[in-house]
Design a protein that fits this description.
Layout: E1 6-9, H1 13-24, E2 29-32, H2 59-72, E3 76-78, E4 82-87, E5 93-97, H3 100-105, E6 112-115, E7 119-122
Helix pairs in contact: 1-2
The structure holds flavin-adenine dinucleotide.
């Protein structure tokens, strides 16, 4: 079972920022991301209000830069959704990721990550949800 000082759930801007700070402070850091590096910002073409980019920056490129910065200090990415988080009897946390197959495929990086130091960060702020209504109004709606 691999152990980290700090586990961050969500690899969007918030999670990757947390990862930069945590890894730069020399804490062993893992970021769990279930979809795409950078989260929502990676889905937009131009970001014009991020400091340091007077001409704007492509959202995907910005996300990759955030990732590069976090990894430079040693943060590790795991592209798995976190399904559960539990506090263990010894006051640590145990995270369980979504895919059992990932555990079996990579026995050196087990499914359950243990986080001594009792620290984790939840940066999984948002996820798109399908609107609970029909894409087009029904014929009767326009009457
Ligand atoms: C099209 C679009 C354009 C935008 N343009 C701008 C802009 O120009 N300027 C601006 O300031 N803001 C913009 N925003 C808003 C900005 O993207 C968000 O404010 C920002 O992404 C929030 O970052 P976050 O890290 O808090 O959350 P998110 O970006 O939502 O990241 C959360 C991450 O957590 C992951 N996650 C969730 N649950 C789990 C789990 N159980 N296990 C593992 N991972 C999980 C998600 O997959 C996601 O990647 C835009 C948003 C969109 C959608």
């Amino acid at each position: 079972m691999k152990e980290y000082d700090i586990a961050i759930v969500g690899g969007g801007g918030a999670g990757l920022t947390a990862a930069v700070y945590a890894a730069r402070a020399r804490r062993s850091t893992v970021v769990f991301e279930r979809l795409v590096t950078g989260g929502q910002i990676a889905t937009t073409d131009i970001v014009e209000n991020f400091p340091g980019f007077p001409e704007g920056v492509n959202g995907f490129d910005l996300a990759q830069l955030m990732l590069k910065q976090a990894e430079k200090f040693g943060a590790e990415m795991v592209y798995e959704g976190v399904e559960s988080l539990e506090r263990t009897e010894d006051s640590r946390f145990r995270l369980e990721t979504a895919s059992g197959a990932w555990d079996r495929m990579r026995s050196t990086r087990p499914l359950k990550s243990r986080c001594p130091g009792a620290t984790f960060s939840l940066a999984a702020t948002a996820a798109p949800r399908a609107a609970n209504r029909p894409a087009k109004p029904a014929a009767t709606d326009s009457l």
